[in-house]
Please model this.
Amino acid sequence: MQQQQQQKLPITNPQPPPVGSDFAYCCDCYYDPKKETLEYNYAYDDAKLPTQAYPRIRERGEAYIDSYNDQPWGWTFGTHEKNGSWFNSSDQAGSIMSVMVWVLLMYSQVTVTFLTLTEGIPVYLGMLYAMLVTLALACHAKTSLTDPGSVPVTAIPSERQRLTKDAHSMCGQCQTFKPPGSHHCRICNRCISRMDHHCPWMNNCVGVSNLKHFCLFLVYTWCSAAFALTIFGWNYFFCADEDCTFHPVVLHLVRLMTILAVGAFLFTSSMLMNVCYGVMTGIGTIDRLKKKATNTMNQSDEESIALIDIFGIAPWYTWPFPVDPIFEDYDRVMGYTMPQRLDRERQFCEAKRPVISELKNTASLELPNCLNDLLPA
Model:
């Protein structure tokens, strides 16, 4: 289950920590995890002994990390906000196509394994192909089972949006705030932040939270197809002795796999170009189709998407692996904020005993009165 992302206010001119200290580096500044993390058990009974220690009071604008997890804990599958695990089961065609991806990749792996066992290719080439297929399947699973960035019912505009925009969009289906760049998916029945498209091969939408996994899947699938075609092409054009000839039984598997590899190579190539274009221009597939239909592509004012808003703030050597990204500014990347988080911050800043506020799920675009003073000037 995805934990709540780190929330952080900027610190100007960060100074290096003392040598030998326990300070950590995050979001271009140093902080003490033991001091800046708001670890507080909201469900703790104060009548019990020992009493719970009260966290240090923060000043307005002081950096902090909100470690509270407000995600659903239910062991249920679905795309509703109350479901603890994201899984789209409403699209039968998408489910079949998603399973087909696994079947075809496993077929290719079995074929290459037979080539290795019959000494048609060296063992290290078979191991390299197995690694590419394993990574591709792992990325496919993460793309399919990760919340693509669904907008909760209680989402409200962030401070930047409130200051720069006079009006905000509402979703006619969800009856809630609609962040810029988001779209309502009729299959998932949710609004998705920075939605690119709904991919039937993934049986899921491609949005801000799983775009990294989708890109990695395309890269690993493209590399697998190109690697297989290179091996088969070398064998067909340059094999001149019996030592490199494929076994007659395996040869039939190779012929079918060649057709599949050509199709996968062409399809993933086109999708990679489509994703790269969307990242460089900041215009998703749905928005691009709408602009082309209305001939308004030249009027686009979107900015390119930074890689840190796709792969997160983790070190670059973690980017090739299908792990969930942690964004530097979660509210900015998602396009909305949550009144519950703002209310927790208000309680800490006002030196009040933290209590989970009874904020009702509402689709109103207006902040509650108790939160208006929270936003920094």
